[in-house]
């Protein structure tokens, strides 16, 4: 499957109480691609992420990771296959240090431990040392070295996003779904986050990026998919897509 997409969704649909959040969405992420997913509030982007990551079952449709059907699998199994995701609002364990948070699993929004597939009690002191070394390297890569022994509660929103990314990278994912890494982040940190995302992609990780920050989308992505009302509205180069009258209308309708 070296040529095929690393992540493919076909005909995904999902309703909540009879209201369709996502309808017949297909999406394909190529090997090494950094693909943007945009759309007005309520377009269904997060619902797509939840289905792709395995934390929400689709009503219909099929999801493949590296050519394998994973539709019936949960988030932990998908993470072990190489698909990791971040959340819009990361929830690190506040009393644990940055290092401990990266070494251990963490909670999703509902408080369930869904992303801890990589965390197993160390088999030996050697394993423990290796895991700690890897965590230190990732914390350094994500610019948090100076905070490594600090409790996660002292981190800013942007730093929590970096911490969450470090935690996910412990599993060596091949595909990462990033949910609004720029939201609520100060301009200096935003610049650094963009740089880290580009570097991660350059290291061979394929990335699907939900982002409202269009500067980030246009700078990082060569292709973007636009969702509105649960469906694909357009896709193409960011510069073309943002001029598309249907896309402009969808965003204005949201205002
Ligand atoms: P935003 O940019 O604001 O994060 P989004 O594009 O991620 O929006 P979703 O969060 O996927 O959109 O929401 C799509 C629709 O599905 C919305 O109308 C939302 O209210 C609805 N929805 C999502 N999750 C649930 C749920 N668990 N129960 C009921 N309705 C839901």
UniProtKB/TrEMBL annotation:
Residues covered by the ABC transporter domain: 7-254
Keywords for the protein's UniProt record, in alphabetical order: ATP-binding, Nucleotide-binding, Transport
Molecular function GO labels: ATP binding; ATP hydrolysis activity
Coiled-coil segments: none
GO CC annotations on file: plasma membrane
Gene3D superfamilies found in the cross-reference section: P-loop containing nucleotide triphosphate hydrolases
UniProt keyword Transport, yes or no: yes
PROSITE patterns (UniProt xref): ABC_TRANSPORTER_1, ABC_TRANSPORTER_2
This protein's name: ABC transporter domain-containing protein
